[in-house]
Amino acid sequence: MSNAVVSGLAGAGGGIIAQIITYPLQTVNTRQQTERVAKKNNKAAAGSHQPNAAKRGTLFQIFDVIKNEGLGGLYSGLKPSLLGTAASMGVYYYFYQVFKNKAEAIAAKNFRKGKGNGSVGMFSWLVVAAFAGSLNVLLTNPIWVLVTRMQTHTQAEKKILEARREALLKQISERTHSDALQQKLDELESLKPTPYGTLDAASEVYGESGIRGFWKGIVPTLIMVCNPSIQFMIYETSLGRLKRKRAEKNKSKGVSALEVFLLGALAKLGATVSTYPLLVVKSRLQAKQEIGGNISQRYSGTIDAIVKMIRYEGFRSFYKGMSTKIVQSVLAASVLFMIKEELVKACAAVINGRHQIIPKIVNVKIS
């Protein structure tokens, strides 16, 4: 089994475990990112049931989701998310290892020619991660569009119901006899979010934009390839330096699971802080546009989203929910790196064990 396949399978396994552990934070963070709040209070905001919800803390929002939607609300879209994580991590780590092998081979070849020190440089790690990330994005973007829809479905439905409620209240205030309207309002108040599965999300996306809808947000997502690129540049460089220092001191080159965990956290922190605005734009494009109360908060594309966010919400809107994302992504990346490395070690041990057992079996049969 090639090291690229082993790396891909280990990455998929680590990614699934990390996703399950941190998914509630991811759900809340996606809702924070897609919540539209204008710079100044307007009539739409004043008519909302929870005008200050976006300003409340992450823990409050978690409990609020549990109260209104049950524990399952925190895991909306988990099934396609796990599929997406397995596919995304598998594809990414497979191609990452393929390109990494080539980069290391080139560095070794240059070293034999008297160029460099035989190690892969920062820029090369950046390129390796960028190529792997681009292939991953193009292949798995449809899955993440569905996940975002499912995570924000309840949020969108609430916005739609609020708009209908405000319209009915306006009609009631303009009429003297409004028993029928009052009945409609009572029925509206009693409505609860409808069940919404993967097929519902897929049908909705296709109905809105056709096949192209499954690649919504592809531009900021492709640009966001720099996130894992930065992450792996920091991780591989830090890991390489740690191993070299150990080697210089005649110590084992092995790195502990805790050290991998901390290096993964450091790498993801740097990548998340530098690319977070693009993540917000991507989430808003992939979510149902009814979350925006009016045309000023609905987007037709990446540039339109950026311009409207700056104009109507200010630059702070690009950093909505960043504290939640930092906790979620750093924890997920740390767990992923740690588990992936341990799985790779386990696979190596199994493969080496087989190589040692086979000669013994052969010798026994001969004797």
Automatic annotation (TrEMBL):
Subcellular location per the Swiss-Prot or TrEMBL entry:
Membrane
- Report the membrane topology from the UniProt record: Multi-pass membrane protein
The Gene Ontology biological process terms listed for this entry are: nucleotide transport; transmembrane transport
**InterPro entries linked:** MCP_dom_sf, MCP_transmembrane, SLC25A32-like
Residue stretches spanning the membrane = 81-99, 120-139, 256-279
Q: Which Gene Ontology cellular component terms are annotated?
A: membrane
* Gene3D superfamilies (alphabetical): Mitochondrial carrier domain
Q: Which UniProt keywords apply?
A: Membrane, Repeat, Transmembrane, Transmembrane helix, Transport
Q: Name one Pfam family in it.
A: Mito_carr
Question: What's the chief localization of this chain?
Answer: membrane
* Solcar repeats, residue ranges: 2-102, 120-241, 255-346
Q: Which family does it belong to?
A: Belongs to the mitochondrial carrier (TC 2.A.29) family.
Query: What protein am I looking at?
Result: OLC1v1028874C1
